[in-house]
């Protein structure tokens, strides 16, 4: 039976907008801390999430990452509309003439390429770009108060990348179009029914259930999980997805005597001898 007891999180780094903590047994938690705007992200938030994701990726003690929002009311409500300029989101809203951009693109790609499972822990709203964040995560554990949906066409935006493609793969093209074209909110039960989230639990159990799922994964082969993630993402992410899977295969190939023969022959300035390696059927 997996231990679902509560975790004593240790803060590794408290950023301006993000709290980054470890469980002590292999789980990293990245929490957006902007509850006053339902955890909407500004560029700074996304830059900090990127840094935390790099740390969690590079830390060999970490096997699974949780992405969440502070409080019970929201996972994330998407881009902070107060810092939305005419050319993207602004790092310095005092200077609206600056060129904005979409920092969230980097976070989405980083989560997809990160070779460890990322679990979205969703209480309350997952809306707009915040909903796309839960889509790009590998698994989602939702509380019974979760409300999910897209709002782009209502506020003058859209995410036709992962926001449309992954959604369509998850819930089917018709339902994905409904979600984007009508901008409705869906409750946790509806989200579960259409395959948008993996499970729904009472709000009070959200963290213990999420941690339980993470601990189940921590008991499994990290390499198998890594290759499964790359395999699932390969077709959805096009050449970048195939590259990830291919490079993972190369990573494993490097440890074989066959690959080492190529390296050693080069260093010894001799012709490589691959004759002892089987031409597998
Ligand atoms: C999420 C809501 C449906 C909740 O409604 P509710 O009535 O419960 O709460 P309030 O509306 O009163 O919100 C409380 C408080 O928070 C502020 N707030 C909420 N969301 C945001 C936000 N996204 N930005 C800024 N501020 C926000 C709200 O103003 C209130 O503040 P007070 O001071 O008045 O108390 C509802 O809040 C809602 O609909 N929110 C807006 C959702 C939204 O428009 N999100 C942005 C969509 S676009 C997007 O996310 C996006 C970002 C990108 O970077 C992209 C990049 C590339 C492609 C596409 C992108 C993209 O679409």
Automatic annotation (TrEMBL):
<dbReference type="InterPro" id="IPR018376">
    <property type="entry name" value="Enoyl-CoA_hyd/isom_CS"/>
</dbReference>
<comment type="function">
    <text>Could possibly oxidize fatty acids using specific components.</text>
</comment>
<keyword id="KW-0276">Fatty acid metabolism</keyword>
<protein>
    <recommendedName>
        <fullName>1,4-dihydroxy-2-naphthoyl-CoA synthase</fullName>
        <ecNumber>4.1.3.36</ecNumber>
    </recommendedName>
</protein>
<comment type="similarity">
    <text>Belongs to the enoyl-CoA hydratase/isomerase family. MenB subfamily.</text>
</comment>
<dbReference type="GO" id="GO:0009234">
    <property type="term" value="P:menaquinone biosynthetic process"/>
</dbReference>
<dbReference type="GO" id="GO:0005829">
    <property type="term" value="C:cytosol"/>
</dbReference>
<feature type="binding site" description="in other chain">
    <location>
        <position position="157"/>
    </location>
    <ligand>
        <name>substrate</name>
    </ligand>
</feature>
<keyword id="KW-0443">Lipid metabolism</keyword>
<dbReference type="GO" id="GO:0018812">
    <property type="term" value="F:3-hydroxyacyl-CoA dehydratase activity"/>
</dbReference>
<dbReference type="InterPro" id="IPR029045">
    <property type="entry name" value="ClpP/crotonase-like_dom_sf"/>
</dbReference>
<comment type="pathway">
    <text>Quinol/quinone metabolism; 1,4-dihydroxy-2-naphthoate biosynthesis; 1,4-dihydroxy-2-naphthoate from chorismate: step 6/7.</text>
</comment>
<dbReference type="InterPro" id="IPR010198">
    <property type="entry name" value="DHNA-CoA_synthase_MenB"/>
</dbReference>
<feature type="site" description="Important for catalysis">
    <location>
        <position position="254"/>
    </location>
</feature>
<comment type="function">
    <text>Converts o-succinylbenzoyl-CoA (OSB-CoA) to 1,4-dihydroxy-2-naphthoyl-CoA (DHNA-CoA).</text>
</comment>
<dbReference type="GO" id="GO:0006631">
    <property type="term" value="P:fatty acid metabolic process"/>
</dbReference>
<feature type="binding site">
    <location>
        <position position="269"/>
    </location>
    <ligand>
        <name>substrate</name>
    </ligand>
</feature>
<comment type="pathway">
    <text>Quinol/quinone metabolism; menaquinone biosynthesis.</text>
</comment>
<keyword id="KW-0456">Lyase</keyword>
<feature type="binding site" description="in other chain">
    <location>
        <begin position="125"/>
        <end position="129"/>
    </location>
    <ligand>
        <name>substrate</name>
    </ligand>
</feature>
<keyword id="KW-0474">Menaquinone biosynthesis</keyword>
<dbReference type="GO" id="GO:0008935">
    <property type="term" value="F:1,4-dihydroxy-2-naphthoyl-CoA synthase activity"/>
</dbReference>
<feature type="binding site">
    <location>
        <position position="254"/>
    </location>
    <ligand>
        <name>substrate</name>
    </ligand>
</feature>
<dbReference type="InterPro" id="IPR014748">
    <property type="entry name" value="Enoyl-CoA_hydra_C"/>
</dbReference>
<dbReference type="Pfam" id="PF00378">
    <property type="entry name" value="ECH_1"/>
</dbReference>
<feature type="binding site" description="in other chain">
    <location>
        <position position="89"/>
    </location>
    <ligand>
        <name>substrate</name>
    </ligand>
</feature>
<feature type="binding site" description="in other chain">
    <location>
        <begin position="77"/>
        <end position="81"/>
    </location>
    <ligand>
        <name>substrate</name>
    </ligand>
</feature>
<feature type="site" description="Important for catalysis">
    <location>
        <position position="89"/>
    </location>
</feature>
<dbReference type="InterPro" id="IPR001753">
    <property type="entry name" value="Enoyl-CoA_hydra/iso"/>
</dbReference>
């Amino acid at each position: 039976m997996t231990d679902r007891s509560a975790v004593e999180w240790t803060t590794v780094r408290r950023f301006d907008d993000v709290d980054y903590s470890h469980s002590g047994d292999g789980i990293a938690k990245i929490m957006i801390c902007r509850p006053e705007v339902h955890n909407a992200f500004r560029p700074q938030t996304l830059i900090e999430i990127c840094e935390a994701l790099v740390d969690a990726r590079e830390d060999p003690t970490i096997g699974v990452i949780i992405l969440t929002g502070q409080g019970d009311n929201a996972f994330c409500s998407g881009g902070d509309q107060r810092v939305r300029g005419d050319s993207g989101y602004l790092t310095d809203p005092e200077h609206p003439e600056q060129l904005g951009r979409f920092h969230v693109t980097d976070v989405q790609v980083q989560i997809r390429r990160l070779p460890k499972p990322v679990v979205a822990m969703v209480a309350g709203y997952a809306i707009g770009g915040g909903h796309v964040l839960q889509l790009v995560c590998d698994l989602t554990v939702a509380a019974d108060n979760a409300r999910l949906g897209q709002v782009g066409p209502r506020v003058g935006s859209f995410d036709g990348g992962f926001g449309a493609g992954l959604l369509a793969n998850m819930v089917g093209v018709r339902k994905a179009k409904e979600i984007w074209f009508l901008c409705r909110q869906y409750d946790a039960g509806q989200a579960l029914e259409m395959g948008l989230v993996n499970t729904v639990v009472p709000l009070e159990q959200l963290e213990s259930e999420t941690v339980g799922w993470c601990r189940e994964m921590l008991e499994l082969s990290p390499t198998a999980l890594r290759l499964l993630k790359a395999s699932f993402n390969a077709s959805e992410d096009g050449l970048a997805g195939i590259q990830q899977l291919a490079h993972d295969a190369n990573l494993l190939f490097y440890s074989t005597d066959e690959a080492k023969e190529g390296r050693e022959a080069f260093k010894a300035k001799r012709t490589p001898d691959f004759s002892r390696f089987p031409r597998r059927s």
